[in-house]
Amino acid sequence: MVKINGADTDMAGKTVSEYLALTGCNPKLVAVERNEEIIPKAQYDTTVFEDGDTVEVVSFVGGG
Amino acid sequence: MDNDKLIIGGHEFHSRFILGSGKYSMRLIEAAVRDAGAEIITLAVRRANTKQQESILDYIPEGVTLLPNTSGARTAEEAVRIARLARELGCGDFVKIEIMRDSKYLLPDNQETVRATEILAKEGFVVMPYMYPDLNVARDLVNAGAAAVMPLASPIGSNKGLASKEFIQILIDEIDLPIIVDAGIGRPSQACEAMEMGAAAIMANTALATAGDLSMMASAFRQAIEAGRKAYLAGLGRVLTRGASASDPLTGFLHD
C-alpha cells in the first residue's frame, strides 16, 4: 500500500506521472513529497512509488 | 511619496497593503488585487484535490508577488516542510511563517517560529514570520534572519483591531526591519492608525472576505493605508497633556 494524502492506495509500482494522470491531477499545479522528501518535477516520470511509501500531493489554495 | 518604497528582503514594493486570498471566491481575486493596489498576495498550501482542475494561480494577476504561508504547521519542522513544498510549487522564495499549536485562539507559537525562521533564512527564503508581539522574540527573529516581522493586532479573523497596539509600537520603535501588522485588522480606520504609528504595511484578509462588498472594501483599505503612511511621513501634530491651544490669533478681537 502507498499512503497518499492520508489514504491507503494501490499505487505501488506506479510512477508519479502515472499516478497524477490516473487521478486527473495537473503536474504543473502540484508539489509531491515522498517520505518527507520533495520529488523534483523532472523526476516525476522516473520516480516509482514503493510499498510503504507515504506521499503528500499539495497545491495552492486561498489563505491569509 | 513616489520614492517611498517598502523593501522586504531586497525586493521593492510601492504598495503597503498585503492581501489575503482566503475565504472568498478565487474569481474575486483579480478585482480585489486591483482595488487594493496590492503587490503581494498570500496563499496557503493544502493537500491537492484531484478533482479540481482550476488553480488559484490563474486568478492572480501577473507581477504580483506570491507569499505562501505555512498555516497548518504546529512545529518548526512542519513549517519548514510546507515552505519547501511551496517553493517547489514555483512561487519564488517568499514565505510567511505561521505556526500554531492552539486551535481555539490561533495564537502563533513564537519559539517554534524563531526556529523555523532560522532554518528557512539559511535556505535562502525571504522569511516573514507571523508572531505575537514580543520585543525579545522580535529581536530573536532579526538574529535568525527574518526579512520582516509580522505581529498580530488581535486574534486571526476577529476583526477586532489593534488590541496589541502598545506592543506593536515597541516593535516599530526598536526593530530595524519592516513591521507588518497582520491579523485582526477589521476596519480601514484601524489600518490607518497602524500606519500612522509607523507600521511598514498591513496584511488583511477576513476584513475584506466578510465585508459586504469585498472590492470596495479593498479600495477603502488602500486609501486608509496610504493616508496613514502619509500622516506618518508628515509627522503627526503634538497632543496637549491638558488645556487648549487656539488655532486663531488671540489679538484683534472686535471688542478690543
Characterise this structure.
- The complex is a heterodimer of chains A (64) and B (256).
- Chain A has one domain (2-58): Ubiquitin-like (UB roll) (Roll), CATH 3.10.20.
- Chain A is mostly beta strands.
- Chain A has one helix at residues 16-22; strands at residues 2-4, 7-9, 31-34, 37-39, 54-62.
- Chain B has a single domain, classed as TIM Barrel (Alpha-Beta Barrel), CATH 3.20.20.70.
- Chain B has eight helices and ten strands.
- In chain B, α2 (76-88) packs across α3 (110-122), α3 runs parallel beside α4 (135-144) and α6 (188-196) runs parallel beside α8.
- The model of chain B has no long low-confidence stretch (mean pLDDT 95).
- β5 of chain A pairs antiparallel with β4 of chain B.
Query: And the CATH topology of chain B?
Result: TIM Barrel
How many strands of chain A? 5
Shape of chain B: globular
Oligomer: heterodimer
Distance between the termini of chain B: 46 Å
Biggest sheet strand order of chain A reads 2-1-5-3-4
CATH topology of chain A: Ubiquitin-like (UB roll)
**Number of separate helices of chain A:** 1
Give me the CATH architecture of chain B, please.
Alpha-Beta Barrel
The CATH homologous superfamily name of chain B equals Aldolase class I
N-to-C CA distance of chain A: 35 Å
Helix content of chain A: 10-25%
